[in-house]
Design goal:
Layout (H helix, E strand, L loop, with lengths): L8 H17 L10 H21 L3 H27 L5 H27 L3
Helix pairs in contact: 1-2, 1-4, 2-3, 3-4
Length: 121
């Protein structure tokens, strides 16, 4: 049985994703520091943070709600990645790895929500 949110695979992937987003955005033009860089980092941090906060609530309905918010942040980050890539910012290798992790996280979160609805954790 999982005892802490740090043991959740989805949280671990979200942390890895966040670190990659920070590495990617570190190469963006300085003019984007308070624009796209800030938005992308905030969205990435929000994914793992909402998973952790939802877990800490110890209430299944609240956890599901926080997972839903995390999933929203995934979509937000995906959109920002498209914009950044279209602008030609960053290295391609980061986009591929981040994209793969986003797909994994985006599959896991809804599955967790369905599972939680079926039974209490």
């Amino acid at each position: 049985m999982i005892k802490t949110y740090q043991e959740l695979i989805v949280w671990q992937k979200a942390i890895k994703l966040t670190l990659l987003v920070y590495k990617l955005t570190a190469t963006f033009p300085k003019g984007e520091t308070y624009g796209l860089v800030s938005q992308m980092c905030r969205a990435a941090v929000s994914i793992a943070s909402n998973i952790a906060e939802g877990w800490a609530r110890k209430n299944t309905a609240e956890f599901i709600n926080f997972l839903s918010m995390a999933n929203g942040s995934v979509a937000e980050l995906q959109t920002q990645l498209v914009i950044a890539k279209e602008l030609g910012y960053g290295e391609t290798k980061f986009y591929e790895e981040i994209g793969g992790l986003l797909v994994e996280v985006q599959k896991i979160i809804p599955a967790m929500m369905v599972s939680l609805k079926r039974s209490n954790r």
